Amino acid sequence: MEIVNIHDAKTRLSALIAAAVAGKPFIIAKAGKPLVKVTALESSAPRKSRLGGLRGQLSIPDDFDTMSEKEIEEMFYGPEGFGPLDDKPAR
């Protein structure tokens, strides 16, 4: 594990942090005496993909694109089916 003095750590902080995130922790020392150990947090590790996590647990009905079609049509045009293209005059 790399030991870095405080002055050097200030100078190379970005590179040292990148190395720690990549799995190479380091120690900051003052006058050769180790003070702190710098390691990456668990949450900074790359996330695993969650795509496909519910595969096989859900199903889509075959009539998905037409289900409730009549109810939706009635919400827009009413139960009589008067739509904007019918011959009835608009109110």
Outline the structure in words:
- With 91 residues, this protein is of the alpha+beta class.
- The chain has a domain at 2-41: 3-Layer(aba) Sandwich (YefM-like fold).
- The protein contains three helices and three strands.
- Strands 1-2-3 form a three-stranded mixed beta sheet.
- It starts with a strand and ends in a 14-residue tail after the last helix.
- The mean pLDDT is 83.
Separation of termini?
A: 82 Å
CATH architecture heading of the domain at 2-41: 3-Layer(aba) Sandwich
Q: What percentage of the residues does DSSP assign to strands (E)?
A: 15-25%
CATH topology of the domain at 2-41: YefM-like fold
Total count of strands: 3
What is the top-level CATH class of the domain at 2-41? Alpha Beta
Mean pLDDT: 83
Contiguous uncertain segments of 5+ residues: none
| Structural class based on helices, strands and sheet pairing | alpha+beta
User: CATH superfamily name of the domain at 2-41?
Assistant: YefM-like domain
Number of helices: 3
Radius of gyration: 32 Å
- Shape, please? rod-shaped
Give a concise summary.
The protein is α+β, with helices and mostly antiparallel strands and 91 residues long.
Supply database-style keywords:
rod-shaped, 3 strands, YefM-like fold, single chain, 91 residues, alpha+beta, three-stranded mixed beta sheet
